[in-house]
Amino acid sequence: MIRKTTLTATAAAAALAFGLTACGGGAGDSAENTEETPTTGESESGANTDGGEATTETAGENFGSGCAEVPADGEGSFQGMADDPVATAASNNPVLSTLVTAVQEADLVDTLNSAEDVTVFAPADPAFAEIPEEDLNALLADQEQLTEVLTYHVVEGRQTPSDLENGTFTSLQGGEVTTEGSGEEFTVNGEAGVICGNVQTANATVYIIDGVLMPS
């Protein structure tokens, strides 16, 4: 069930500080602020938007059963997503349509597209379907609470699969997100599983998960 919460001054300050650190000049030039940022889910094709090369450790391979649901080609494919900043990349992927709607309702598109080097734990559509419709609609209509929930899914830095083995990360919302696992099996906050990992966009590494994270 969705429990209405109010952003505390501390969380708001933390989010503001993170945003000022992470954000570049704006959504319009985000694709140009990706120097040495990997833009492909495959280690063999490490080119980014300004001609640099991604490291093998960061680019790596996509993994997880949910990767089969990602389009094989086009803008919503792994290669297509690698060319765009994260909010734009997600909007082209049919697996993430509800998340994209939520990001638009919270007016976070520019914030996410202009962030530099972040990791997004992106709930797939079935994750939102687990929330009762009435509660989901209430969440989407409450911009303050929706912003708190969505920014909790974004953490500092491009986290590699090895970083997720026993990780604790600070979210844009201000709270901590923990991960654990190994190989191709990872959980976030001990509840949501990674179903498609190490997806690269122009400014973020994305792990598609099967649950919606709720900040305490």
Q: Whole-Å distance between the termini?
A: 13 Å
The main pleated sheet reads as:
7 strands, mixed
CATH superfamily: FAS1 domain
**Rounded radius of gyration (Å):** 16 Å
Task: Give the DSSP E fraction (strand runs of 2 or more residues).
Answer: 15-25%
- How confident is the prediction overall: mean pLDDT? 81
What order do the strands of the largest sheet run in, or round the barrel if closed?
2-1-7-6-5-4-3
In CATH, what is the class?
Answer: Mainly Beta
Low-confidence stretches: 1-58
Helix/strand order, N-terminal first: HHHHHHEHHHEEEEEE
- CATH-derived architecture: Roll
Count, helices? 9
Helix content range: 25-40%
Number of strands: 7
Count of distinct structural domains: 1
Secondary-structure-based class equals alpha+beta
Q: What's the overall geometry?
A: globular
At CATH level 3, the topology is FAS1 domain
Signal peptide: 1-27
Domain FAS1: 83-213
Organism: Nocardiopsis sinuspersici
Keywords: Signal
Notes on the protein architecture:
This is Fasciclin. Residues 1-27 form the signal peptide. Residues 27-86 are annotated as: Disordered. Pfam families: Fasciclin (PF02469). This protein has 216 residues and is of the alpha+beta class. The protein has one domain (56-209): FAS1 domain (Roll). 31% of the residues lie in helices and 19% in strands. The chain has helices at 9-22, 56-59, 78-82, 86-91, 97-105, 109-114, 125-129, 133-141, 143-151, and strands at residues 118-123, 154-156, 166-170, 176-182, 185-188, 192-200, 204-209. Strands 2-1-7-6-5-4-3 form a 7-stranded mixed sheet. The protein is globular.
